[in-house]
Amino acid sequence: MLKDKSAVITGSTSGIGLAYAHALADVGVNIMINGFGDADAIEAERQKLEAKGVKAVYSAADMTKPDEIAGMIADAQSKLGGCDILINNAGIQFVSPVEDFPDAKWDAIIAINLSSAFHTIKHAVPLMRKAGWGRIINTASAHALVASPDKVAYVAAKHGIAGITKVVALEVAQDNITVNAICPGYVLTPLVEKQIPDTAKARGITEEQVKHDVLLAAQPTKQFVTVEQVAALAVFLCQDAAASITGAILPIDGGWTAE
Question: Is 154 a catalytic residue?
């Protein structure tokens, strides 16, 4: 039932976002990827998606700029025939005690991790209502449910994503549109991997110790969540079997938020 649907996935040139793109392309969904990175590498990924037999296009829209976000959704309509599935995945991170947290970093994280989802949803919902079907999936985090020190902007943004998810789910509940948030625990993405050397240096421990004793300290399984597991949950949420799941904040976190 997903074949020939169209998906816009923000922050999808690597990591979880790219896994979403490949998992949806595998079931016949046309894809618009978005994000920053090396132009040749992005084009190579776009071609890999098209090799699965779907349309795949790239949008360079900056998630801090509402007008570019509006243009991205309009492009999905013109190039892919719509925006049936919207996955808000764009995100950045910065770690610092609150009293030292740079104002510019706060503004950037709130803009990219939170406000961009508002802008994409605002423009996608009318298209979904017109089509009579839609799926909105917001990548939140275990940090939408619990907090960690030194991540004031990220945790605030992810708690905000949970709120947006619930509100919009109520607004579109009778329009055959579902809105859910996936809350991964630690996934070994480029965003997480960049934190490991700095953390090891700051704490005077090895990178392996950072992975096991710091990053996975809160995950009872002591295993990273994989991008494929997160993507598989997203594909399920797009199916008819998940039509009654809406407004849900769904952990996939190795038991982190069970404690």
Answer: yes
